[in-house]
Design a protein that fits this description.
The protein is built from no helices and eleven strands. The strands form two sheets. Strands 2, 4, 5, 6, 9, 10 and 11 form a seven-stranded mixed sheet that branches. It is mostly beta strands.
Length: 122
């Protein structure tokens, strides 16, 4: 399985960005999929995730209400709509897939993408 994240860039505070993650190699319909981020000098942290059906979503408190995670199982893609971006959102964003829902909030994902850089200027 390969995950390819894209959509990062340099924006000003308050702007929006939409990240995408394309999966290839197999369908990930049965997998929960998530977004993580890693800021310079910090550990990778969970951002958001969505269940295989798309019926359940999870967010870290710092992005809830600003970010929206979604997926299109027909296209085998995952998205993260990021609104009202803040400088503290600056990080490399990674998409990932995990089979077991209990692991959604942890870094114990089965597959990882290569990351896309989001930079938010003040």
């Amino acid at each position: 399985v390969q995950l390819q994240a894209s959509g990062g860039g340099l924006v000003q505070a308050g702007a929006s960005l939409r990240l995408s993650c394309a999966a290839s190699g197999r369908t990930l319909r049965s997998y929960n999929m998530g977004w993580f981020r890693q800021a310079p000098g910090k550990e990778r942290e969970f951002v958001a995730a969505i269940s295989g059906s798309g019926h359940s979503t999870w967010y870290v408190d710092s992005v809830r209400g600003r970010f929206t995670v979604s997926r299109d199982n027909a296209k085998n893609t995952l998205s993260l709509q990021m609104n009202s971006l803040k400088p503290e959102d600056t990080a490399v964003y990674y998409c990932a897939a995990v089979e077991y829902r209990d692991y959604v909030w942890t870094p114990l994902y089965d597959y990882w993408g290569q990351g896309t850089l989001v930079t938010v200027s003040s």
